[in-house]
Structure formats: C-alpha cells, structure tokens
Amino acid sequence: MTTSPAPGNQLDEADPRSPDQQPRGSRARRRRRIIASTTLLTVVGLLLANAAMVNWQTAPATGDSTLHLDGGDINVSQDGPRDAPALVLIHGLGASTEWWSPIVPTLATSYRVIRIDLLGHGRSAKPAGGYAISQQGRHVGQALDQLGIEHATVIGHSTGGYVATALAEHRSDLVTALALINTGPRLDAFISDGPVGKLVFVPVLGQLLWRLRTDGILRRGL
Fold first, then answer.
1. Which of 57, 108, 139, 202 is at 20 to 30 A from 77, Cα to Cα?
2. What angle separates helix 159-170 from helix 133-146, to the nearest 10 degrees?
3. What pTM did the predictor assign?
C-alpha cells in the first residue's frame, strides 16, 4: 500500500509560502533591498546621462568677429596696423583671448596682433569634438589663411604652446618664429593640477563636477 505524504509536508515542498505569509522582518529586508537597488540604478543612470550630455553638448560661436571653419566657428580679435608684421597669440587651457588683454596695447604699436579663441574656449564654438592638439593647430592655420596671413610670429601660453608647436610643424611656410610661455617639454610634463583639477578628468565624476562648477571650483582647478 502506497503512503501519501502528510498534508503539512506537501505544502512545504510544493507550495512555498507567499510573500504575504513570510515573516514581517523578511519582507521589510526585501523591500529595503529593492529600494536600495532601484535608487542605486537611478543614480548611476543619471550620472551616465549627465556625462553623455556634457560630452556631446555643443554651442555656437558668439564673437563679433567670427571665422567659419570646417571644424567649427572661431572667434578672432585683431589689433594694430593691418600692414604690420603679424603676431599670433594662442591662449592656454581654460583661457581665452582676454588672457592677453593687458599686453595687447603695447604689442599693437608695432604688430598686427591676432588673438584666437580655440574651439571650446572663449567666444568660439563648442563642437562635440575636434579638440586634439593637432586639430586645434590646423584650425589656427585655417583661420590665418582666411585672414590673408602669409607669415607670422606665433606665441603660445601653456597648452597654447602645444597648439603653436603643432601649427609650426604643420605649416612651416606660415610660422617664421615661435615663442612658448610655460609650456612643458612634452605633454605629460606638468605640475600636479591638485585634487580638484584631477577630478575634472575622472570619467563620469568629472562631468558631474563640471555641471556643478562654480567660479571658485574653476579657480582652484586652474
């Protein structure tokens, strides 16, 4: 004769307790885990979305004197006699044509002073890409061609020195003299940017810091 399992054992094996029958503490822990996982996924999703938005956010040029180039519109400022020797000033990272303003009046007495906002700086356009040193150098060359400059002395400050060097390498016919100010001998030769400056280049976190930037954060980073 076959013996059927006891009703209690059959319920335990084939019909586990529903969530409503589980102990209250177990249900509470399960809810907390669900809430924590959902919150974490939401935060990660927002951070990744912000990183993508910052990286791909674009902006048009806003300067009064804008040159239209293939890579993006560039703002240019000119001072001094148009028939004087050309002197091109290229700013560093995070700066603009305004960085040179204190010395322009003196230089403009003898030179045609040309200041250029690199892409993503000052009043030039901010495209989604095109910020490699070699690309920035080519953009400066194209801008000078549009201005009708055949020969120029080029001065670059900090990262602008790398752009000036790239321009000289790419356009030896254009650059007659090159001056570098606070530009390292190679791209990885630099003084520490400090904790804030380092965080700006950390993926995802850097884009969040950029989104929450203040003048104080930018000054500390620079």
1. 57
2. 60
3. 0.69
